[in-house]
Amino acid sequence: MFDVTQNTFVYLALHIRQLNVTSEFTSYTKENFDDNSQKKLGGFL
User: Distance from CA of residue 23 to its chain's centroid?
Assistant: First the structure.
């Protein structure tokens, strides 16, 4: 993925889940970030 060393600064923003069907904000990007993506990221960290 990336070359991360002990001198690399990594910032992670919390994932915001859509609370209900009327929520306007649903994603930061066009790609889907679902529960499986969250687990994969957690395994990487």
Answer: 18
Measured CA to CA, the distance from residue 13 to residue 23 in angstroms comes to: 19
Instruction: For residue range 18-42, list pLDDT tens digits in order.
Output: 677 777 766 667 777 777 887 887 7
| Contacts (Cβ under 8 Å, ≥6 apart) of 15 | 33, 38
Q: Give the residue extent of every domain in the chain.
A: 1-45
Q: Give pairs for 7-13: CB < 8 Å, separation 24+.
A: 12/41, 12/45
d(CA 7, CA 30): 30
- In this prediction the pTM is 0.43
- What is the sign, positive or negative, of the torsion defined by CA atoms of 22, 24, 26, 31? positive
